[in-house]
Design brief:
Pfam families: zf-RING_2. By secondary structure, the chain is mostly helical. The chain has 9 helices and 5 strands. The longest helix is centred in the last third of the chain and has 146 residues.
């Protein structure tokens, strides 16, 4: 059932922060009697067993738990086991007057050697307590100092234990801060992981967008390349047509020159025809003149007798 609250030296609030108190009985967890559930909660085995047997659930978060799932903290969490062992407690007979303070791991060994009888209460000087019982509780050193009762043979041990308790309490406070720091670090790691994932997603998205842009650019380049090829083909066709037009113009010019030459030849032929006509007319005139001359000469050469007839 754990260690009673009055035996615990540490501040209870601090113990609750670091979860070293059984949530059921409220006592400090005992290292040898503490079990851990799969969900990470600590209980006294005697406290949690009836609840799990009846409900098959964790008393803290009501998650499904079976008795076979419970693990001794010594096996499941050695760090908590050592922390519990270092917890400062008083002797089980502190109510009887024992002032021993030490680590919980040493309490059993002290109890087996504790010189304070069980069931005795602190004797107040001047009371009617039996002197023989009082004398049995006084050690030789206490008698030498003239004390009425002595429950510690060395006064410094108690002071050292108190200092040790304060130191251990500070250590526990530091450990609690370390736990918080660990949680904060874990949160920061998770946030850093999320940031990294977001950065990776952004980079992937950026790469995807860049890839899409590159694809669009390549597509545009290909389209422009096709247009350039078409333009080049069109220009080539136009050049060919221009060459053909030039050749046709040359042919037209040549035909024009030939036509002019033909016109000149036609005019020359016309002139020649007129000249030939004139020559023929002149030749006809000459023929007529020759015929008339022949006729005249033939008439003049006739005999004179022929004239009368």
């Amino acid at each position: 059932m754990g260690i009673e609250a009055e035996r615990v030296v540490h501040d209870r609030a601090l113990l609750e922060i670091v979860e070293l108190v059984c949530p059921i009985c409220g006592n400090l967890l005992s290292p040898e009697d503490t079990v851990e559930t799969p969900c990470g909660h600590l209980f006294c085995s005697a406290c949690v067993a009836p609840f799990i047997t009846s409900h098959s659930k964790c008393p803290q978060d009501l998650s499904q738990v079976q008795m076979t799932d419970l693990k001794p903290v010594k096996e499941s969490n050695t760090y908590v086991y050592r922390m519990l062992g270092r917890s400062l407690v008083r002797c089980v007979r502190h109510g009887d007057g024992c002032n021993w303070v030490g680590e919980l791991s040493e309490a059993a060994a002290h109890s087996s050697q504790c010189s304070v009888p069980a069931g005795q209460r602190l004797v107040v000087p001047g009371s009617s307590t039996d002197e023989s019982l009082l004398a049995s509780l006084i050690c030789p050193r206490g008698r030498e100092r003239g004390e009425d009762i002595c429950f510690s043979c060395d006064e410094k041990n108690f002071q050292i234990a108190i200092l040790r308790s304060e130191v251990d309490q500070k250590v526990m406070e530091i450990e609690a801060l370390m736990l918080k720091l660990s949680e904060i670090s874990k949160e920061n790691e998770e946030k850093s992981k999320q940031v990294m994932e977001m950065q990776q997603m952004m980079e992937m998205q950026k790469e995807t967008e860049i890839g899409m842009l590159r694809s669009d650019v390549d597509k545009k380049i290909m389209e422009n390349g096709e247009l350039m090829l078409k333009l080049a083909e069109s220009l080539k066709e136009k050049e060919e047509k221009c060459e053909q037009a030039v050749e046709m113009q040359q042919d037209v010019d040549k035909l024009r020159d030939d036509w002019e030459l033909m016109l000149e030849l036609a005019e020359s032929l016309k002139e020649n025809e007129e000249k030939c006509k004139q020559v023929m007319e002149m030749q006809q005139g000459i023929e007529k003149l020759r015929d008339r001359w022949k006729a005249h000469t033939s008439y003049s050469n006739r005999p004179s007798g022929c004239e009368g007839s």
